[in-house]
Amino acid sequence: MNTFKNLILVFLGGGIGSAFRYLIGKLFLSNSNSFPWGTFLANLTGCFLLGFFSNWVIKNFRSEWMIFFTIGICGGLTTFSTFSNEALVMLKNQNWLLFLKYSISSFIFGLIMIKIGYDSFKFLQNYY
Predict the structure, then answer these.
(1) Count of beta carbons in the 10 Å neighbourhood of residue 51
(2) Which of 7, 15, 77, 82 can pair with 46 through a Cys bridge, CB separation 3.0 to 4.6 Å?
(3) Annotated domain spans of the chain
(4) Entry pTM
(5) pLDDT of 4-62, one tens digit each?
(6) What letters, b where the CB count within 10 A reaches 16 and e where it falls short, cover 4-37?
(7) How many CB atoms neighbour CB 118 within 10 A?
(8) Helices 80-92, 96-127: inter-axial angle, 10-degree rounding
(9) Helical pair 37-60 and 2-27, crossing angle rounded to 10 deg
């Protein structure tokens, strides 16, 4: 029964994350020769939320909600497959500079956003 409950939590959270991913993508349309801002911003938002949720849920909720927030919402929001496909298209088009900018900035800023999300909960916790 617990597995079924967790599956429902992932399903609901994933739907929420995927809906936000879709909306972000609609706001930032791109083509194969431009920086894919939609995917980039969705992934960075997901990294921030993953850092925040990881700290917040551990401190305030039962562990099953970690599944809803991290695997569900953040998993639905972020998209490694789209990132990889966009990077591959850049390579196929021999757009080396855009490929390097996108790949390196996704990795570095992803790590930064996880850390900011994690630290922002600690900051809020100290003041509230």
Answers:
(1) 22
(2) 77
(3) 2-28+37-122
(4) 0.89
(5) 999 999 999 999 999 999 999 999 988 778 999 999 999 999 999 999 998 887 777 77
(6) eebeebbeebbeebbebbeebbeeeeeeeeeebe
(7) 18
(8) 160
(9) 150
- For the stretch 60-100, pLDDT in tens is 777 788 899 999 999 999 999 999 999 999 999 999 999 99
- Rounded Cα distance, 5 and 22, in Å: 26
User: Quick check: 128 pLDDT over 70?
Assistant: no
Tokens of 94: 């021999």
97, exposed or middle or buried, with CB in 10 Å at 0-12, 13-18, 19+? exposed
Q: SS3 string of 59-100?
A: HHCCCHHHHHHHHHHHHHHCCHHHHHHHHHHHHHCCCHHHHH
